[in-house]
Design a protein that fits this description.
The chain is about 40% helix and about 20% strand. It contains ten helices and eight strands. It is globular and about 50 Å long. The mean pLDDT is about 95.
Length: about 220
């Protein structure tokens, strides 16, 4: 199967309200261009330097999503062009994104990463940290970021019931925040689900899925 055929097949299975992020990390520009030529405009990378390199080489109507764990000292390299930062998991990181966005005269959209898995290795805010962050006066002063939704990653397991429970948990946190609408917080996106579990994620309320191997094939 070609990248184009894979992409068109996946798109045909997605409801209209679900955004597809093509996870292109480690893939060469030629592969991304095949997806681009098949109509894909949103690509997700997990290393900032790799994303910068691809951004420089590729058409400028692409939306670049940073989907990996972000180190604060690297934010400046992508602040001029990144469309959405998925894994915002600390107040310190949000402050840095706000600072770098201001330098570039931009407002950068962010998703807050919520810890929903039963694994120690996953990053994210718990519900108390989330509540403290969103209600803090310092957060409300941030004029150059916009929180547009929540992101979460389920436990890496074959237990569908556990994954479903974690996805539903994220959706319930999202629903619980709907009354909170600050100037820099407009919650519309629930980003959850990857190649292996995106259909379950959509059934649980996901509006954005991150799919890599099902489009580009596995890692070489």
């Amino acid at each position: 199967m070609s990248i184009k055929n894979n992409l068109l097949h996946i798109k045909s299975t997605l409801p209209e309200h679900v955004t597809l992020v093509a996870v292109s990390k480690t893939k060469p520009v030629s592969d991304l261009m095949e997806a681009y030529n098949a109509g894909q405009r949103i690509f997700g990378e997990n290393k900032i330097q790799e994303m910068v390199d691809k951004w420089e080489q590729m058409p400028k109507d692409i939306e670049w999503h940073m989907i990996g764990h972000v180190q604060t000292n690297k934010v400046k390299y992508m602040a001029s062009f990144v469309s959405l930062i998925h894994g915002v998991d600390s107040f310190k990181l949000l402050e840095e994104i706000n600072k770098q966005a201001k330098k570039n005269n931009r407002i950068i959209d962010c998703l807050l990463q919520i810890y929903i898995a039963e694994e120690e290795s996953k990053f994210g805010l718990d519900e108390v940290e989330l509540s403290v962050l969103l209600s803090s006066p310092a957060f409300k002063e941030m004029k150059n970021i916009r929180i547009v939704g929540l992101m979460g990653m389920a436990t890496f397991t074959d237990d569908q019931n556990q994954i479903k429970k974690e996805f539903q948990h994220l959706k319930s946190i999202f629903d619980g925040l709907q009354s909170l609408q600050a100037a820099n917080c407009k919650l519309q996106t629930v980003s959850m689900g990857m190649s292996g579990d995106y259909q379950l994620a959509i059934a649980c309320g996901s509006t954005m899925v991150r799919i890599g191997s099902s489009i580009f094939g596995g890692r070489i």
